[in-house]
Specification:
- The protein is of the alpha/beta class.
- It is 51% helix and 14% strand.
- The protein has a 5-stranded parallel β-sheet with strand order 3-2-1-4-5, with helices on both faces. The protein has a 3-stranded antiparallel β-sheet with strand order 6-8-7.
- Strand 1, helix 1 (13-21) and strand 2 form a beta-alpha-beta unit.
- Helix 9 (244-255) crosses helix 10 (261-274).
- The longest helix has 22 residues, at 39-60.
């Protein structure tokens, strides 16, 4: 069984054609929609999603659902949603190890990352890779993929505009048409081509929150051990600690354990494993003789993605 998670942008062929041409057995498709740019852009993307929904059902016989992403530039929310979606599909009926033992084919999850704004694509790819690390037994059932287009329409549109520009010039010079109308169209086409030649397919840089960039953190390719989980959740709850000793004291109090040199050493050891030289979930800034300790971006995402639900944490 295959579930394909497909963020929908302004592409059609790249989201369905490779699955048809390579004869994938697609059982379920989750189409992710988001508002991008102008009202015309949003409506265009929705039309593509509607067409994909129909064609996935008719051409591949796949159960197809559409889901809305409120903010396609909110990387953290996209990562969290991806984490939940992929895990839910892996755990769904017919997808677990027990079902496979009963003769059912285990469910695979395929994540398409070639469409939708890059924050969504990278968030879903990073979440998929993070789950591969956490679920070693299931890593062969999780896939991310990209499809290259056969051609880009933008270049063909530019060539067509050039032809139109040349034609308008000829009509104007012939004297057989209204010069004012031709001049207006010629000016608009020439300006558009100048922008295309200078800037490519996009113009400017959009502000997202307080910045013009969305940083895309890299996921750790190592699993998180039980006591390390406890350290991360404690940092997630308190934000930051002025020193590792302060973090150790809080952990000891939470666990109703005696705060000893041995316990402090254990915390230091785990913080080092989670730090920049290890798994990258923790950041430390030198502060006098101590190190101010906080979660890194990927650490914050890990805590956010794992914050819901019951957990059986081994506190030894």
């Amino acid at each position: 069984m295959q579930t394909h998670i497909v963020p929908v942008g302004f592409d059609y062929d790249r989201l369905i054609a490779p699955l048809i041409r390579d004869q994938f057995d697609v059982d379920r498709v989750i189409l992710l929609e988001g508002a991008v740019g102008s009202e015309a852009n949003v409506e265009y993307s929705r039309n593509i999603a509607r067409k994909l929904e129909t064609d996935f059902q008719n051409l591949l016989g796949a159960e197809t659902v559409r889901e809305r992403l409120p903010d396609v530039y909110d990387y953290d929310a996209a990562f969290e949603r991806a984490f939940d979606l992929i895990n839910a599909e892996l755990d769904a009926e017919g997808g677990g190890e027990a079902d496979a033992e009963d003769g059912d084919e285990p469910r695979e999850v395929w994540v398409n990352v070639c469409s939708m704004p890059r924050p969504v694509s990278f968030a879903f790819a990073t979440a998929a890779h993070s789950i591969m690390v956490e679920r070693q037994a299931d890593r062969d059932r999780i896939h991310t993929y990209y499809t290259a287009p056969e051609k880009y329409l933008e270049t063909e549109l530019a060539e067509e505009l050039r032809e139109s520009r040349d034609l308008l010039r000829e009509l104007r010079d012939s004297g057989d048409v209204d010069d004012a109308r031709v001049d207006e169209r010629l000016e608009t086409t020439t300006d558009l081509l100048a922008e295309f030649d200078e800037r490519g397919t996009t113009i400017g840089a959009k502000r997202i929150g307080d910045s013009h960039i969305v940083e895309l953190p890299v996921a750790s390719f190592q699993n998180v051990k039980p006591f390390e989980e406890l350290v991360l959740f404690t940092l997630g709850e308190h934000g930051e600690f002025e020193s590792v000793s302060e973090l150790a004291e809080t952990l000891a109090a939470d666990l109703n354990e005696e705060y000893t040199d041995s316990f402090r050493s254990k915390v230091i050891y785990n913080v080092d494993r989670l730090g920049p030289g290890g798994k990258g979930y923790i950041e430390q800034e030198e502060h006098g003789k101590s190190y101010r300790t906080t979660l890194s971006r990927i650490g914050e995402l890990w805590v956010r993605a794992h914050a819901g639900g019951e957990r059986d944490i081994d506190r030894r």
